[in-house]
Design brief:
The protein has four domains: 257 residues, Rossmann fold (3-Layer(aba) Sandwich); 180 residues, no CATH class; 123 residues; 190 residues, no CATH class. Helix content is 55%, strand content 11%. The protein is built from 27 helices and 23 strands.
Length: 988
């Protein structure tokens, strides 16, 4: 065989000289790679590697892209050129673990130092009938792998056109399973470390494991072992179910006996239902009887009323006649009395008008002035109207002052009591009910009625930094001082219920619902920041963030300034350069200041935030002392009011006299007697009261007889009207009862009875007897149910026990059938497994002997499947001159050649679309290397449907020139360049 010129690894690819055409060689003569018909059709169509490229992988900045041929590929180059990196990238990109490569323990170790990620791109062929989703991927599948510096692996599966199809590793696993690519199988990919380990391994167990893994028998064995473990667990489960089944069967029979004993209870229940039906219609019959009695009573009363109707009409006409006579006499007497009373009043006014100042001294000037104005009414009104009106108005005035006095007194008492209580308990300032309310809230919280305990009153939870600003803060917060805060609406409803017990009248404190937080809001961006005047938020000491957040939400206290002096407040707020974010301000007196408005406060002192309670109590006591004279005056008014009330009541019963013209008299004396008018009114009232009796005594008795007859008629009329009214009321009552009974009968009784028993029954027994029998039967039924249990419970327990027993029985039966079937299948599988193992062992022996014979060796391969060992004996040289010896006694080259023969024999029995070997000839001499290479090329020639990738540091210049052999030469790495050039022997 002629030698080929080896290309210079230091040259660039474009300057690399093509290898010359070889002369006639043994390989050519044997025709391993001769072209023939059907060569193209025998090439592999799926699963082989078309190209691979690496970037920032291991210590290489750029490798590739490499275009592999469909059959034999040699990747040659010196150490460090990147041969093993290509094989490692192939394993990792196709889903292999970092430990499988023997190049590192984690993926992040494959990223070049100083780079953030490493990229690997592999293109797999996807043609023919066995292509994987050809309508999606096309004739090739590109697997792009990116490994980050943190060791994170991401995939992108692209079609032939470069379109991204999937980013899931599950899709890659499906592709590998479809192509039967096994990156962890040493026969498919034999790395350098695995090759060295295998060459140096002298254990028969390691060789057997290698055989089992190469043929995937170990995976089958593990699967069968897992199935047998599952079978054992299932058998244990069945045994437990059998024990449980016996207990369930016992319970089932027990519940069945109790279920059958319910027959007697069913009979009693049926009898009870029949009695209830009879009871329903018996009650209807009773209502019908009561309705008939009421109808009879109504007819009797109606007949009696009709009999009394003529007599009532006659008496009514007689009463009307007497009434007309009475009215005529009253008119005549009225005119006479009015005339006499007018003259009499005029004389009294003339006589007693000088006695006014006696009672006037009891009143203040205001009341006297008001009373003097009433004299003007004398000029145009009737005297009795004037007197009545004067007394009524003055009485009303005094009554109002009395009520105002009582209300003010009660308010002062409450304020003083609250201040007295707040000496020891500041909470009393917020109302007399507030301590009890908080105690109730604490009790409810201890009982767990609140999710989160409400907070309040808010005014109790804050403290003033400056006591002078108490009134200003109260005017700002107003009703919020008494408000409470809840975390949720459920707590708010519970708090409302508690408040309803303590605030039955009057206004209740406000309740604000807001989510509780543990931190105060960050209001720096929207708060007022003034150097001289604080905001309400800064003026208060608030320990609870919930209170602070609530006041921020409800009142915006971060935007309100507190300015003690009103003049300064106007200057700050009503100027053009007012503070940013400031909405309003409050003065020390509680006045509210806006940009263009100013509102004075009606409150003159702090009620809740006052610092000195004793000073407040002294202030209220002094105020009460100063008001004592005014209260004495009001007390005098009250006494006069009582007197006038009595007189007013009597004057209301006096008939109205005719008015007289008293204008001249009043006009002449008005100024002189201005301060004496009220005394004159009292004298007038007394005189009129005394004169009324005299005037009545002087009346004639000419109407006496008419009055007596009228009185008798009125008496008779009243008597019969009362009797008539009684009968009418009785009729209405009976009608109402009749209507109610009828409605009860129609709506309630009949409807209820029809609901209980739709068919109407003719019941002879009374409702009372039926009720007693129902009670007796119900008691008997309850007694037996207590002994046996409730019917529904017994039935439910029986069905549950039956269902549980049947379910477990079915499960046990199904599991037993499954175990039997699984045992049969596993026995068959074990037999097939044993036959397959034997068949593969025989084939491996045959191919091993055939490979050794190429060198003139004789070998023996002994499998011990029981002990899981594989012993290999080789006799170098001619068979008759030496005996078989263990591989451990062979030289390095002989052992390497024997190992290659073993690997090639495994190739013949293992299925995979491609084979990859890394430095398989590292310990061979030239003779063994050439023989091994010849054998591998023969196998490659006979298996053109597979792809072979050999990585070797040899130049391979002696290989025959054939288009099925592709040589990729890697140059020694140049540290100054980012990509390593390579050359290929004969690109397609």
């Amino acid at each position: 065989m002629s030698k080929r010129k080896s290309s210079n690894s230091g040259q660039t690819p474009d300057k690399r000289s093509r290898l010359s055409q070889p002369e006639a060689s043994e390989e050519d003569e044997t025709g391993y790679f001769s072209s023939g018909e059907g060569l193209s059709t025998s090439q592999s169509e799926v699963g082989i590697i078309e190209s691979i490229s690496l970037k920032n992988f291991m210590c290489h900045s750029m490798l590739g892209p490499f275009a592999f041929g469909p059959n034999v590929n040699f990747v040659v180059g010196n150490n460090g050129s990147g041969k093993s990196a290509v094989l490692t990238a192939l394993i990792v990109a196709l889903g292999g673990k970092a430990l499988t490569t023997n190049r590192g323990s984690s993926l992040k170790g494959f990223v070049k130092e100083g780079e953030s990620s490493a990229d690997v791109s592999i293109t797999l062929r996807n043609r023919g009938r066995d292509a994987y989703k050809p309508e999606v991927f096309g004739q090739s599948i590109t697997v792009d792998l990116r490994i980050s510096s943190e060791g994170i692996r991401t995939y992108k599966l692209r079609s032939k056109t470069g379109h991204l199809v999937s980013s899931k590793k599950e899709e890659l696993i499906s592709i590998l399973d479809h192509f039967n690519i096994q990156v962890d199988n040493p026969v498919s990919i034999l790395t350098q470390e695995m090759s060295k380990h295998f060459l140096h391994s002298k254990g028969e167990g390691d060789k057997y494991k290698f055989f089992m893994k190469a043929t995937q028998l170990d995976q089958m064995k593990e699967d069968y072992s897992y199935i047998m473990k599952t079978k054992t667990m299932t058998q244990n489960t069945v045994e437990k179910h059998r024990e449980t089944l016996q207990e369930l069967k016992r319970k089932y029979h027990e519940k069945e006996e109790r279920y059958k004993s319910l027959a007697s209870l069913d009979e009693m229940q049926k009898k009870l239902d029949e009695l209830k039906n009879q009871m329903a219609w018996a009650l209807v019959r009773n209502h019908c009887q009561i309705l008939g009695q009421l109808q009879d009573q109504l007819e009797g009363v109606t007949q009696r009323m009709q009999q009394l109707q003529p007599q009532c009409a006659e008496l009514k006409s007689r009463a009307q006649a007497r009434n007309r006579d009475l009215k005529a006499a009253e008119v005549r007497n009225h005119n006479t009395i009015r005339k006499e009373i007018g003259n009499f009043i005029f004389s009294i006014l003339k006589k007693h008008f000088t006695s006014g100042p006696r009672l006037l001294g009891l009143l203040d000037l205001k009341c006297a002035t008001k009373m003097s104005l009433f004299l003007i009414l004398i000029l145009s009104f009737d005297l009795s109207h004037f007197v009545y009106l004067a007394i009524f108005l003055f009485f009303s005035f005094c009554s109002r002052e009395k009520q105002d006095l009582l209300r003010a007194l009660e308010s002062k008492r409450r304020d003083l009591a609250a201040m007295e209580s707040s000496r020891d308990n500041r909470l009393c300032r917020f109302g007399e009910h507030m301590p009890a309310l908080l105690r109730a809230i604490d009790e409810a919280d201890q009982r767990g009625l609140f999710r989160k305990k409400p907070v309040g009153p808010l005014g109790f939870c804050i403290r003033l930094r400056d006591p002078e600003l108490g009134l200003a803060v109260e005017c700002c917060l107003k009703a919020l001082m008494l408000a409470f805060c809840c975390d949720n609406h459920a707590d708010e409803r519970e708090l409302q219920r508690i408040m309803s017990r303590h605030f039955q009248q009057g206004r209740r404190p406000q309740i604000i619902v807001s989510k509780f937080t543990n931190t105060v809001y960050d209001v720096r961006s929207r708060a007022v920041d003034h150097d001289d005047y604080p905001t309400v938020l800064k003026a208060l000491e608030i320990e609870n963030p919930v209170v602070a957040n609530c006041l921020i939400d409800m009142r915006g206290i971060e935007t309100i300034l507190l300015i003690k002096n009103a003049k300064d407040a106007r200057r700050v707020m009503q100027s053009e350069a007012r503070p940013r974010n400031c909405r309003e301000a409050f003065t020390r007196e509680g006045d509210q200041v806006y940009y263009n408005r100013y509102y004075s406060s009606e409150q003159n002192r702090a009620l809740y935030l006052s610092g000195d309670v004793e000073e407040e109590i002294r202030f209220e006591n002094m105020k009460c002392i100063f008001e004592i004279p005014h209260h004495c005056t009001l007390t005098k008014h009250a006494l006069i009011c009582i007197f006038l009330q009595a007189e007013l009541t009597e004057w209301q019963n006096v008939e109205e006299p005719q008015s007289e013209d008293l204008k001249p008299l009043v006009t002449n004396r008005f100024t002189h007697y201005k301060e004496k008018c009220f005394s004159g009114f009292l004298c007038l009232i007394m005189a009129l009261c005394s004169g009324r009796g005299t005037g009545g005594a002087q009346q004639p008795n000419k109407c006496f007889n008419s009055d007596e007859e009228l009185a008798r008629s009125k008496h008779h009329k009243k008597h019969y009207e009362e009797k008539r009214k009684a009968h009418v009321d009785m009729i209405e009552t009976l009608k109402k009862n009749l209507y109610e009974k009828d409605q009860l009968l129609q709506v309630a009784s009949i409807a209820k009875a029809a609901e209980i028993c739709p068919e109407r029954l003719d019941v002879r027994r009374t409702a009372k007897s039926l009720d007693s029998e129902i009670s007796r039967l119900r008691h008997k039924l309850n007694t037996q149910q207590d002994q046996q249990g409730q019917r529904d419970t017994i039935v439910r327990q029986f069905h549950e026990a039956k269902e549980n027993f049947n379910n477990i029985a079915r499960q046990v039966k199904g599991l037993e059938a499954f175990i039997r079937q699984l045992s049969e299948i596993m026995n068959s599988r074990h037999n097939v497994y044993s036959e397959l193992r034997m068949y593969l062992s025989v084939r491996c022996k045959y191919y091993f002997d055939s490979m050794l014979s190429q060198r003139g060796y004789i070998g023996k391969m002994t499998f011990d499947h029981k002990n899981e060992t594989l012993s290999i004996s080789v006799q170098p040289g001619e068979g008759g001159k030496a005996s078989l010896s263990d591989m451990r006694s062979l030289s390095g080259g002989e052992r390497s050649f024997s190992t290659v023969c073993f690997v090639l024999s495994l190739w013949a029995i293992a299925e995979a679309p491609f084979r990859a070997l890394d430095e398989f000839d590292v310990y061979m001499d030239m003779v063994n290397r050439r023989i091994s290479m010849d054998m591998m090329l023969k196998i490659a020639a006979s298996q053109r449907y597979r792809q072979f990738i050999f990585l070797t540091p040899q130049s391979m210049s002696s290989l025959p020139d054939n288009r099925l052999i592709r040589i990729l030469r890697l140059s020694d790495p140049d540290r100054s360049q980012s990509a390593i050039p390579f050359g290929q022997r004969n690109p397609e």
